[in-house]
Amino acid sequence: MLVLSNEDVEKLLTMDECIAVLEELYLDLAEGRALCSPRVDNLAPCGVDGAYYGFKHMGGAWPRRKIQALRINSDIITHPAHEKKLRRVKLPLAGGRWVGLVELFSTETGELLAIFPDGAAQRLRVGATNGLAVKYMARSDAARVGLIGSGWQAGAQLMAVLAVRPVREVKVFSPRRESRDAFAREAREKHGIDIRAVDTAEECVRDVDMIMSATSSMVPVLQPEWLSPGIHVSCIKTQEVDGKFLGSCHRVIMHTKLQGKQRDNILPGTPNIIPQHLKGWWNEDGFRWAEFTDLSDLIAGKAPGRSDNREITCFVNNVGLGLQFAAVGALILENAGKLKVGHQLPAEWFTESVHP
Amino acid sequence: MLVLSNEDVEKLLTMDECIAVLEELYLDLAEGRALCSPRVDNLAPCGVDGAYYGFKHMGGAWPRRKIQALRINSDIITHPAHEKKLRRVKLPLAGGRWVGLVELFSTETGELLAIFPDGAAQRLRVGATNGLAVKYMARSDAARVGLIGSGWQAGAQLMAVLAVRPVREVKVFSPRRESRDAFAREAREKHGIDIRAVDTAEECVRDVDMIMSATSSMVPVLQPEWLSPGIHVSCIKTQEVDGKFLGSCHRVIMHTKLQGKQRDNILPGTPNIIPQHLKGWWNEDGFRWAEFTDLSDLIAGKAPGRSDNREITCFVNNVGLGLQFAAVGALILENAGKLKVGHQLPAEWFTESVHP
């Protein structure tokens, strides 16, 4: 049984490979050859004032690669106000660190094959998913990027778009000047690209071919007035846009309608602090979900993509799938075998001699 | 992070302690102070002829003891016929072993505290649960036991009834003579009790105060005609009795109505070999579930128990709860701290420095 760190996982995954393995997975998903398991969210009191305990898990089986994945998050969650907007902040109470884990099992033998923290894989799967959407939706000559956000996820979004389009020019915006300047400086060094920080979101998205939004915002960051013909918009979460914005796009693809988040399973006594803005257009009754296509159907050719160079397209990575970790996990295992990283623990520790 | 074996777990748990900690848990569950998470069953092809892959998980949070438990089963499942009855047999393809794991997390810090195989804990939680039912339902002077079954679970059922009643005499029956003889011999040595093997199930349950059924049978093993006034019947699974049998009992308590098994989540291509007898009275529409009380409500005094010495009572351990592993797990952790068993792994391996 292999235990890996985020640093190991980063060494084992390239964005190109992540995009390729997810593409293979989505083809299988579209054809009913991969299985998503329902997501479960348990919330309970945690003994910390103004915080609650959240235990979330989701998984998926991908028989082609013989992997069952389970991703577990075990968090102490708070909702501090920041400039009047309530955010969702997890407290690092595990010795100053957080707890998110991916576990991979063999569908051939049942064995637990690996455990690793979810961070690096999570970031790359989000990047690769939005990158796949760019690959299938943006104009083939799209070369100018407006990146909203300068955090950890923004870096993966940039890597993803660089992997699938001949990017010539990038603008980046985020509210704090130091952050966006630092992001631009680092990205220039790392990728050798033409990138500059700009002062407003609007300036960031003017005269670009692709808007990559990569924020943790709980309120919309993009306005319909900013859309120009032929642009492709990429969001990493539903809250970054609203129903009106989506209505201004000609074609909207969602990551998946398969795995809506289930109702939270909440223990009485859990502090009633979950912000109402966690509700929105995406879980309103009667919202026009049926109009949107799943990314897997687009990739499998079951749904049409961009029809012409003037169409405004939008991809919303509305929810993650535990199944994505089966794909990224298969890749990690394959590459770990070649590079010999991580800690190998005896298989017998995680098996038993009695019929369970 | 503590890794324990089944042998470690057996050393750390006594039946008395298991019964006590589950009693504490059920009191909290009845008062809405413990949370069950939904059970998920994923079935998919596994590449072995006549078998399929089953990934099952269920959990629960128990804030009083600051534990979130998750129990995972990752199995290659077959349904071989045995004397015309289809059974459910898991293949030990993980190096000749099986894969069932319990993971414990802290609801205070989020940390993964321990991983151990589920076997020893599973057996003791089933025994302790039925033992608790005996404690609350059997006549206080009940002293004669008829034990149906001589397998691994039967041993725990015997330990449990010995823990809660002044047992004087035990009869044991199972179809194979060598098995029941060996069981009687070993139990006599281990517990110093008066126990003898008998040739039929009917003989086993005649003139006893308590019937403990502990079989893996997929068809009923007990007949209503065998019931005598004042007897208590204990079953470890629903299939051991049928609706007619339950109708002949004056009072029936179920382990729980909370966590009915969810619908299986089945990937197309999974061999269609799941036997129809996995359906039965317990999942028929219109079955009189509402008439039955949950064990937790009985323990919390929210539902009446035995009313007199002639009443025939029956407890059916209809389904397990992931939450039980939080209780047994809390005990395991507490005792492991005192006895220094298992392998301690660095906490940093199972935490991360990035906000997930």
Key descriptive features of the protein:
Rossmann fold, 19 strands, 9-stranded mixed beta sheet, 9 helices, homodimer, 356 residues, ornithine cyclodeaminase, domain 1, 29% helix, 8-stranded parallel beta sheet, alpha/beta
Could you give a short account of the major beta sheet of chain A? 9 strands, mixed
The CATH topology annotation of the largest domain in chain A reads as: Rossmann fold
How many domains make up the 3D coordinates of chain A? 2
Strand content of chain A: 25-35%
Known CATH architecture of the largest domain in chain A: 3-Layer(aba) Sandwich
Number of helices of chain A: 9
N- and C-termini, Cα separation of chain A = 20 Å
The mean pLDDT of chain A is 93
Instruction: State the helical fraction of chain A.
Output: 25-40%
Order of helices and strands of chain A: EHHEEEEEEEEHEHEHEHEEHEEEHEHE
Q: Nearest-angstrom radius of gyration of chain A?
A: 20 Å
SSE-based structural type of chain A: alpha/beta
Principal-axis shape of chain A equals globular
Oligomer: homodimer
Largest interface: A-B, 78 and 78 residues
Unreliable sequence segments of chain A: none
Return the CATH class of the largest domain in chain A. Alpha Beta
User: Using DSSP, what is the number of strands of chain A?
Assistant: 19
- Provide the CATH superfamily of the largest domain in chain A: NAD(P)-binding Rossmann-like Domain
Question: How would you characterize the overall build of this protein?
Answer:
- The structure is a homodimer of 356-residue chains.
- The first copy, chain A, starts with a strand and ends in a 12-residue tail after the last strand.
- In chain A, strands 1, 2, 3, 4, 7, 8, 9, 16 and 19 form a nine-stranded mixed beta sheet that branches. An eight-stranded parallel beta sheet of chain A has the order 12-11-10-13-14-18-15-17. In chain A, strands 5-6 form a two-stranded antiparallel ribbon.
- The mean pLDDT of chain A is 93.
- Chain A has two domains: 2-121 and 322-346, ornithine cyclodeaminase, domain 1 (2-Layer Sandwich), CATH 3.30.1780; 137-316, Rossmann fold.
- Chain A is globular, with a radius of gyration of 20 Å.
- The first copy, chain A, is built from nine helices and 19 strands.
- By secondary structure, chain A is of the alpha/beta class.
